Amino acid sequence: MQLDERTLSIALPVLVVMMAALALWLALLQRSYSALRQRLRRLVPEGAGFDEVLDRQHRRLEDVAGRVDALNKLHRELEELTQRSIQKVGVVRFNPFADTGGDQSFAIALLDAEGNGVVLSSLHSRADTRIFAKQVLAGRSRHQLSDEEQDAIRKALAPAGA
């Protein structure tokens, strides 16, 4: 079968365009292949297999899980410790004696999250200053409390912003 000149003149440019398209397509494939190979090399070092990579990642995950467990344990311990630390403070200043000027005396309640702690009182007069400490359990004391000491405890136990 012979091709005439007209068919050859049409077929040749079509063939050239198809070859150029094929070359472009191959170039794009090569570029994608190179990028994929580069990403794969970052995941799998030269000479290492997928089993090695997966095993290494598994060990790293176990290590991270162990660290998270240790941090959770520490968090619980710190949470328990903070429940027993001073969190609530109430202060009342007052003047217990008519012969002294200003509110130099005070009662201060220092309590933990459960209302346990101490209430300190200082009574200031012209001649001396006396300091008292009374234990507080759940917002109450087995010792006789003055009105100011009770006010200090109430202030300490009051919700924030109240």
Structure description:
A hairpin with a 5-residue loop joins β2 and β3. The protein has helices at 5-43, 50-83, 147-157, and strands at 88-94, 105-111, 117-124, 129-136. The model has no long low-confidence stretch (mean pLDDT 89). The chain contains three helices and four strands. It folds into two domains: 33-83; 88-157, no CATH class. By secondary structure, the chain is α+β, with helices and mostly antiparallel strands. Strands 1-2-3-4 form a four-stranded antiparallel β-sheet, with helices on one face.
- The proportion of residues forming helix, as a percent range, comes to 40-55%
H and E string: HHEEEEH
Name the structural class.
alpha+beta
Average predicted confidence as pLDDT: 89
Strand-helix topology:
Elements: H1 5-43, H2 50-83, E1 88-94, E2 105-111, E3 117-124, E4 129-136, H3 147-157
Antiparallel strand pairs: 1-2, 2-3, 3-4
Compact summary:
The chain has helices at 5-43, 50-83, 147-157; strands spanning 88-94, 105-111, 117-124, 129-136. The chain is α+β, with helices and mostly antiparallel strands and 162 residues long.
What labels would you give this structure?
single chain, 162 residues, alpha+beta, four-stranded antiparallel beta sheet, 4 strands, 52% helix
